[in-house]
Amino acid sequence: MKSICGDLLLQRLGSDGLAAFGKPLNRGLYECIRGAILDGTLAPATRLPPQRDLAAELGLSRNTVMFAYEQLLAEGYLRARTGSGTFVADTAPESYLNATAATVAEAGPREMPGLSARGRRLIENASASPTQWGAFMPGVPDLRRFPHRRYSQISARLWRNPQPEWLSYSHGGGLPALREAVATHLRVARSVRCDAGQVLITEGIHQAIDLVVRLLGSPGDQAWVEEPGYWGIRSVLQVGDIGMVPMPVDGDGLTLPDTDAIGDAPPPRFVFVTPSHQYPMGAVMSLKRRRALLEFARQHGSWIVEDDYDSEFRFSGQPIPSLQGMEPDAPVIYIGTFSKTLYPGLRMGYLVLPRALAASFQTAHADLYRAGHLMTQATVAEFMQAGDYAAHIRRMRPLYARRRAMLADLIERYLGPAALNRLGSNAGLHLILRLPDDADDVAIAATARERGIIVRPLSRYYLGQSVQKGLLLGYACVPEEHIGPAFDVLLGCLPGRNRLTGI
After folding, report:
1. Mapped to the 3 state alphabet, what secondary structure does 332-388 carry?
2. CA pair distance 314, 325, nearest whole angstrom
3. Domain match, 362 and 449 both
4. pLDDT (mean) for 200-224
5. Do residues 194 and 308 both lie within one domain?
6. Domain termination residue (choose one: 101, 127, 143)
7. Given this model, what pLDDT does residue 107 score?
8. Which residue from 141, 133, 138 is spatially nearest to 457, judged by alpha carbons?
9. Are 33 and 42 in contact (CB under 8 A)?
10. Sign of the C-alpha dihedral computed for residues 367, 370, 376 and 379 taken in this order
11. Nearest 10 degrees: CA dihedral of 194, 198, 204, 209?
12. Interstrand relation of 253-254 and 243-250 (parallel, antiparallel or unpaired)
């Protein structure tokens, strides 16, 4: 069997072999290996083939290879370990020489084509945080409390005798067992009207939205989005050349314009909503608005995309049923994720599609994304079927409720009741700390990050110029004993703290 190193040297030698070097064979091979080490192709600690094996691969005598190895060992390019083999040294001798570094610097980087206009807009408006863990990172569950042992037991048992089809590409929208488990859970917990054939497993919410936009939208179409709303939806729509119309959110959720106000404007192709727990403000869409939105979508041929954000974590009152489940054959595409209930790094979400769309979406998903991760899907499916998923959610609800109450109490005690946004008081994994209109919440968030505290500025969730200032504070991933000290650090980042009590 040929080694990677042997293939590399054959490529470098080319069709003329070592004759191209115009030098003795042993010297030519030495310079070929040395060059690969110097330009980083053979990285430090790379194991070279035994002399006999490399000689056979290159069609050379063993003495030729022996000379090259011994010379490179003597000069410090290679190191030998008895019983283990020959390896590229951690530091090549030339790395100490200034002449080589100067030559590289003088060459300068090659000019490359730049980003497209669409790519530049995406980068300029990027909102993903470089840090995804710690106080007070919004939207992240307590990963320490995840039942790792139980989950790993299921995974290990499945890996001992995996079905061959689980190790190949996925087709058909995901593993049937997981689609059935998701459908069963959604019917019971969220009153979603669905069966397994309507469920499609995705790699998170962003992929789900991207697939919806690609299959149901065209460049230039319009989408109504909540104002303020989730920045991730805006990023996907922007890349898909879908125009965005911000629709204000109040205590009853997304507001719909009067028919006269719409006039001759084309109706939106999409309406993106988080009706059960509006993100980021936390309002629950009223029944009247839900019915009005469904009627509007039917009349104008629009698709409602329902993101059931944080619906599993309500701490008082009855669960809020899904918008999708209110009417049979509603023009609603329902999306959800396991990022909050299990862990974000799982990168697993789902779509619930109308039956007429399910087969087309399954085909497109397989063609566009070449889906896989079926072993992971099998593990999650058994985790759900065995009751561990529902039990984990039940355990986390009271824990998150305590942490929410602690953080809310600190905000009210030190900054006054007016500083706490009240819309999201019964659900979710974050609170909103309100700030005066003239506050710079982006600068405050940057200062907090320098001091080890992660918060998100509320103003970044708005599309228009009229914005509210505030900070999103996640509490789910912060142990109770750390909430107070972390809040003290955050208080030190707020300029003019005494002004907050009069917001």
Report:
1. EEEEEECCCCCCHHHCCEEEECCHHHHHHHHHHHHHHHCCCCHHHHHHHHHHHHCCH
2. 19
3. no
4. 96
5. yes
6. 101
7. 52
8. 138
9. yes
10. positive
11. -100
12. antiparallel
Sign of the alpha-carbon torsion through 231, 233, 239, 245: negative
pLDDT level of residue 101 (50, 70, 90 thresholds):
very low
Reported pTM = 0.79
Residue appearing with tokens 């039942």: 147
Counting beta carbons within 10 angstroms of the beta carbon of residue 258, is it exposed (0 to 12), middle (13 to 18) or buried (19 or more)?
exposed
- Angle between helices 176-189 and 388-415 in degrees, nearest 10: 50
Type of residue numbered 187: R
The amino acid at 193: R
Tell which residue, 380, 371, 363, 358, has the closest CA to residue 197.
358
The amino acid that residue 426 corresponds to is: N
> Domain range for residue 52?
4-101
Residue 271 one-letter amino acid: V
Provide the CB-side half-sphere exposure for 361 (13 A, CA).
Answer: 26
Q: Give the DSSP H/E element, type plus range, for residue 249.
A: strand 243-250
Number of domains in the chain: 3
How is residue 259 written in tokens?
Answer: 């028919």
Confidence at 102, pLDDT banded by 50, 70, 90: very low
First and final CA of the chain: distance in angstroms? 73
* Residue at 125: amino acid letter: N
Residue type, 445: A
Q: Could you tell me if 266 and 222 are in contact, meaning their C-beta atoms sit under 8 angstroms apart?
A: yes
Q: Is residue 72 part of a domain?
A: yes
Decide if 136 is inside a domain.
Answer: no
Question: Regarding predicted confidence, which is higher, 473 or 101?
Answer: 473
Question: Is the domain of 405 the same as that of 318?
Answer: no
| Residue found under tokens 């190191």 | 79
For 80, the 3-state DSSP assignment is strand
What are 270's strand-pairing partners?
Answer: 223, 303
pLDDT in tens, 305-361: 999 887 788 877 677 889 999 999 999 999 999 999 999 999 999 999 999 999 999
Question: CA 399 to CA 100: how far, in whole Å?
Answer: 59
> What was the pLDDT predicted at 92?
62
Q: Which position has the higher pLDDT, 19 or 375? A: 375
What is the number of alpha carbons within 13 Å of residue 115 lying toward its C-beta?
A: 9
Residue 117: burial class (beta carbons within 10 Å; 0-12, 13-18, 19+): exposed
Domain final residue, candidates 101, 132, 165: 101
Contact (CB, 8 A) for 427 and 313: yes
Which residues share a beta bridge with 91?
Answer: none
Of residues 170 and 217, more confidence is placed in: 217
- Burial of 351-371, coded b for 16+ CB within 10 Å and e otherwise, reads bbbbeebbeebbeebeeeeeb
Position 170 in a domain: no
